[in-house]
Amino acid sequence: MFDSRIQVEQVRLDALRNLNILDTPPSESFDRITRTAGRIFDLPIAAVSLTDADRQWFKSRIGVDHWQIPRENAPCSEVSEFAGTVVIKDFQDSACYRDSHLGRSGIRFYAGAPLVTRDGHALGALCVLGTEPRDATPEEISALEDLAAMVMAQIELQHAFGRIDPVSGLPNRNQLLDDLEDLARDKADKACCVTVIDLISAVDLANLLRVAGPSFLDDLIASSSRSVRQTLGRTSGLYHIAATQYAYASTGQDLEELFAETLQVRAGLLADSRLAGETFSITPAIGLAPFVLGKAAPRDVLRMAHSAAQDARDADTGAGIYSLALDEAHRRRFALIGRMREALVRPGELWLAYQPRIDLRSGHCVGAEALLRWNHPVLGAVSPGEFMPLIEQTRLARDVTEWVIRSVLMQAAEWISLGRNLVLSLNISASNLAEEDFAERLIAAVTSAGLPPSAIEIELTESAIIEKGELPIEHLKRINDAGLGIAIDDFGTGYSSLSYLEHIPAKVLKIDRSFMKTLGSDPRSSTLVGAMISLSHDLGYRVVGEGVETEEVYRLLQQLGCDEAQGFLMCRPLPAADMISWLEERSLPPLPLRRLADLSNDLHWN
């Protein structure tokens, strides 16, 4: 019996604390009710009292200076314990309350009506107190109980305000998380599935708000929520978890059946005439996350369902089930971005490899391309093909390029001091070209390092130049005027339009490695590569063949008049320390520093 009362009290306290009302600021909406109760009884003291574990805390009070009193021998505690109205005509006649905190304070009369939740938990009382003994009429008690019900409604309303979306009228994300926790307690180890419905992509949402405004979005939410509920046939259980996202949880249903249901929901949304505007149409993507109740945190489940919806959108399948493999790939990418800032300041984590560029007439190494490498402390060696596309979409692109520039300049200075006058090239991304001060920073860095400008060459792709408009051309003109080299990388794989070449002050063109794979085995490849080399020479470019891996391709490039070759046949990318050893093993004398663009086709090196 005693244990049962303890358990009931614990449940009551949980209900009180879940409302998040204890120790919150005073509110006029509660004070108004408190003042009304005092006027009805014509008494100077009234309060909304909440019964905590060891205190009575006042959410509202009149005629009282303090915010709380001890719970022991407090009449409001009795109201909470028995969930009924309590009237004490005279404290002096009560053995229980005569020596209580209130009794010693001069209180003689008390009347309190319980604040009862929908689940029957009494959280406290709306009470009135007086310093003279008196009775309470049935009308007064009835009015006090009505006012107590109004207080409870106000508490629940304020709580719901943080749990109900005001536009759709549906429970929000916080409520879904709480409900999933409740399910885990009630149905532990049972199969469950959370489904997320994403009406439109983040990009479309931003455009919609910009063009149509918030009012249009409100109308879309109201219409789409009705459409989803009608298709599901549910009057409850749907949650509005983000601006244009809904979710619902399902238990006891087969996954195949749930997936078929999601397709019906999507079809219903697409067919709803209320959601088909003349200038805008929704593109719903739905994700399902099956899990076992109690085995996964609600926040993780919601993230999984959202991830499945985004995968479905990316794959243009409309709906999809959570994939651990895809999710791990997304999380790996996110982790790489998060780690890069630390890698920039940790010695040895990032490093540069250098791949030689060979003059096809003399066989001499005339330069090297700097290639960024990353030894991740957990993942090991991470390919730049994996991390650079991610970094280029973030503000880290500037910091990473700064690191590469500093490192290349230091290496160039060291090799020049050793008599190895190699032209070092480094790769620049489209995001770098969008930086207004990029050219100035690069030129200043080369000057500060004390290097001749011709010692450094930047490489960039066709697409990087074209997609950023006029700004890259201005950057390249300033860089060229300062004496630095410029090379167009991966030529033939981007826009492949030669019209833009006349506007770019580059002097080196690197034919993409994809053309080298079929060179010699496909006559058309030889014709195409030969045409690119001939035309590039006519336009004043020095041509480099990338990805050379066989003697046959090397000889064909020589025959076609290509100026340089770069690839595994000659040398794989090397750490800086191994580069000098490789040059010495070739027994080739160091060359005077020359700008590659100035090397003519008939120049022979000794």
UniProtKB/TrEMBL annotation:
<dbReference type="InterPro" id="IPR001633">
    <property type="entry name" value="EAL_dom"/>
</dbReference>
<protein>
    <submittedName>
        <fullName>GGDEF and EAL domain-containing protein</fullName>
    </submittedName>
</protein>
<dbReference type="Pfam" id="PF01590">
    <property type="entry name" value="GAF"/>
</dbReference>
<dbReference type="InterPro" id="IPR035919">
    <property type="entry name" value="EAL_sf"/>
</dbReference>
<dbReference type="InterPro" id="IPR029016">
    <property type="entry name" value="GAF-like_dom_sf"/>
</dbReference>
<dbReference type="InterPro" id="IPR050706">
    <property type="entry name" value="Cyclic-di-GMP_PDE-like"/>
</dbReference>
<feature type="domain" description="EAL">
    <location>
        <begin position="333"/>
        <end position="587"/>
    </location>
</feature>
<dbReference type="InterPro" id="IPR029787">
    <property type="entry name" value="Nucleotide_cyclase"/>
</dbReference>
<dbReference type="Pfam" id="PF00563">
    <property type="entry name" value="EAL"/>
</dbReference>
<dbReference type="InterPro" id="IPR043128">
    <property type="entry name" value="Rev_trsase/Diguanyl_cyclase"/>
</dbReference>
<dbReference type="InterPro" id="IPR003018">
    <property type="entry name" value="GAF"/>
</dbReference>
